[in-house]
Design goal:
Elements (H helix, E strand, L loop, with lengths): L13 E3 L4 E3 L2 E2 L3 E4 L2 E3 L2 E8 L4 E3 L2 E8 L2 E3 L2 E8 L4 E3 L2 E8 L4 E3 L2 E3 L2 H6 L25 H4 L16
Parallel strand pairs: 1-4, 2-5, 3-6, 4-6, 5-7, 6-8, 7-9, 8-10, 9-11, 10-12, 11-13, 12-14
Length: 163
Amino acid sequence: MASPDPRKANSVPSIISADLQIDGNVTSQGDIQIDGTVNGDIKTRTLTLGEKGQVRGAIRADSARVCGTVEGEVCAATIILTKTAKVRGDVLHESLAIEAGAFIDGHCRRLSGDEIKREEPQRAASSGGNISGPTPVEMGGQNKGQQSGQPSQSSQPSRTTAA
């Protein structure tokens, strides 16, 4: 009788602790828990991003629970965004749960399971959020239309008169 594949057995997740930063892509056939920082793409079966965890890159997983911050695309069959989640990028899913208080700056798109497997991950820069560039807050609240050079009423200079 052949022994079961140890990679498919229920095991302890790989943990990226709060004091650890990884600069590069992370790939696992099991479960990953991130409480630290990953500057790169992640591909795994199950991802849990803790409240203090940060990912700057694309996430691809069968299942993802996001409690922390993501700057990049999240693509998984099942995605849970908790009330402390902050996602700047698109969310591609088959099943999506969003708790009140979660923040998303991007599009949510439902895909079938087959479409999710074929979907190519997008880096944060190509999904609308430039990691090294200014965020909407740093740009004084300008929206994406203003970033592309389209004028708005709020971009007009204000005039005040002294009495």
